[in-house]
Amino acid sequence: MWWILQIIGCLGVGGIQVVNRVYGIGVTSWVVYTLISMTVTYFAFSKSFSIAPSFFGAWFVGQSAMGIIGLLVAFLVFKDAVSPTQWIGLVLSLVGGYLLIK
Asked: Which positions ≥6 away from 26 have C-beta within 8 Å?
């Protein structure tokens, strides 16, 4: 359950990034951007970290999920160029996240 909450939180952050990039809501300050992201994803991340077996596991799965979601959104939605090295990183992140969840 904790890893599902990490993925939900990362999807929330990714969604905020997509809205900002598509609609240009003008969030240029990293402080404002961080506050919006924290407000939207607070429950998922806080609950995930409180029930995860270790802080490191929850943190790594969250970082892995954010990288994977970011790369897929950039490639599928915005048609950004993705290098072979980035695809290798995606696969390694998937494997690492799976091994921590397992």
From this structure: none
Close Cβ partners of 89 (under 8 Å, ≥ 6 residues apart): 67, 71
Q: How many alpha carbons lie under 13 Å from residue 18 in its C-beta half-sphere?
A: 17
Integer-rounded Cα Rg, in Å, for the chain is 14
Residues with Cβ within 8 Å of residue 6, at least 6 apart in sequence: 44, 45, 48, 58, 61, 62, 65
pLDDT one-digit tens code per residue, 29-80: 677 777 777 787 888 888 888 898 888 888 888 888 888 888 888 888 888 8
Boundaries of every domain in the chain = 2-101
Q: Dihedrals φ, ψ of 65, to 5°?
A: -65, -40
Using alpha carbons, list the distances in angstroms from residue 94 to 1, 69, 90: 17, 11, 6
**Cβ–Cβ < 8 Å for 2, 97:** no
